[in-house]
């Protein structure tokens, strides 16, 4: 394709489409012309992308088409009306699509943590490098448990949520680098393995589980989900398939932004459990049971509800709207 010649032949129609899209009001004739020009412009964009790939001309036309599309599709009269669809379709579909990556991340983290803990418990020299006997006893007998009750529950829950949500957001935002997510996962696995190794070395493994499992089951799963989303974005850039890299990143990035919202919600729940349940005087089996129920509900939502949403054609892309919410905007 001679892109310059093609632009000269169709550029007037694209400019007219842009002018109509910027008008505050459209009469019936203008609205019909807008739709006709949008349809022809979409065909032109497809021809440009097929023949020339990603170009500045195509990008400008894409922006014009997006602006025009908003004029005849509009937006829902009430943004809150989109919430049922978000929770029933978009979010579970986005989670379901990365389920296998989540599983791989979880398994890798468990393996690294277990190996690190075994290394510590099986090598007294490694244990001594972590601190002297008095310092380690202080940790296993007091510091580990006191961490969960040194601050008021509400304040502690808020701090935990803010910190974990920030880590999850970083995993998704910087996932494209291919480096940040593995770094965060290894650091997390080493931290868990170190705590487990020290606690088991001093015969306090039961205390470890009683204080980690209530909130940690959902918290760690949420971090695994965020990491999986980041890795999915990285893979979209490495192996875009039939799409251009820009298209792959845009499409997967929009869908996986949904995951970031979902992680913020699930981490808020785990933060509440960590602040109010983990340090409480409830029996250990009750606290762990609450953690198991929270994780079970999350997995049911991801796997069962998510599978139904995907089978219904949902992608998890927040920019998509139900056809019923679309309307022609005319003066």
Give short descriptive properties of this protein:
78% helix, mainly alpha, 331 residues
Rough outline:
elongated
Radius of gyration: 26 Å
Order of helix and strand elements from N to C terminus: HHHHHHHHHHHH
β-strand number: 0
Number of helices: 12
First-residue to last-residue Cα separation: 39 Å
Strand share of the residues? under 5%
Helix content: over 70%
Topology record:
Blueprint: H1 3-22, H2 28-52, H3 56-73, H4 83-96, H5 99-121, H6 124-129, H7 133-146, H8 153-173, H9 180-201, H10 205-238, H11 245-277, H12 284-311
Helix pairs in contact: 1-2, 1-3, 2-3, 4-11, 4-12, 5-9, 5-10, 8-10, 8-11, 9-10, 10-11, 10-12, 11-12
Describe the structure.
With 331 residues, the protein is mostly helical. Helix content is 78%, strand content 0%. The chain has twelve helices and no strands. It has helices spanning 3-22, 28-52, 56-73, 83-96, 99-121, 124-129, 133-146, 153-173, 180-201, 205-238, 245-277, 284-311. Helix 5 (99-121) packs across helix 9 (180-201). It is elongated, with a radius of gyration of 26 Å.
Task: Sum this structure up briefly.
The protein has 331 residues and is mostly helical. It has helices spanning 3-22, 28-52, 56-73, 83-96, 99-121, 124-129, 133-146, 153-173, 180-201, 205-238, 245-277, 284-311.
């Amino acid at each position: 394709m001679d892109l310059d010649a093609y632009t000269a032949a169709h550029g007037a129609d694209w400019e007219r489409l842009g002018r109509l899209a910027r008008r505050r009001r459209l009469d019936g004739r203008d609205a019909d012309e807008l739709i006709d020009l949008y349809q022809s412009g979409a065909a032109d964009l497809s021809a440009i992308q097929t023949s020339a790939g990603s170009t500045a001309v195509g990008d400008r036309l894409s922006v014009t088409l997006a602006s025009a599309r908003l004029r005849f599709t509009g937006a829902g009269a009430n943004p809150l009306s989109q919430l049922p669809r978000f929770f029933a379709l978009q979010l579970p579909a986005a989670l379901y699509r990365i389920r296998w990556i989540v599983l791989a991340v979880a398994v890798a983290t468990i393996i690294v943590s277990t190996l690190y803990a075994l290394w510590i418990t099986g090598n007294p020299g490694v244990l001594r490098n972590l601190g002297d006997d008095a310092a380690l006893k202080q940790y296993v007998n007091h510091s580990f448990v006191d961490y969960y009750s040194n601050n008021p529950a509400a304040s502690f829950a808020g701090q935990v949520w803010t910190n974990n949500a920030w880590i999850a957001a970083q995993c998704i935002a910087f996932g494209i680098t291919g480096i940040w997510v593995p770094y965060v996962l290894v650091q997390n696995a080493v931290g868990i393995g170190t705590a487990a190794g020290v606690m088991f070395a001093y015969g306090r493994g039961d205390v470890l589980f009683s204080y980690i499992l209530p909130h940690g089951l959902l918290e760690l799963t949420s971090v695994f989900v965020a990491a999986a989303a980041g890795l999915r974005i990285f893979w979209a850039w490495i192996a875009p398939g039939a799409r251009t890299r820009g298209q792959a990143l845009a499409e997967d990035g929009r869908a996986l932004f949904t995951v970031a919202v979902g992680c913020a919600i699930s981490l808020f729940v785990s933060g509440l459990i960590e602040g109010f349940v983990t340090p409480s005087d409830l029996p250990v089996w009750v606290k762990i049971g609450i953690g198991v129920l929270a994780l079970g509900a999350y997995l049911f939502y991801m796997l069962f509800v998510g599978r139904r949403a995907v089978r219904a054609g949902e992608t998890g892309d927040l920019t998509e709207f139900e056809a019923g919410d679309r309307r022609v905007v005319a003066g």
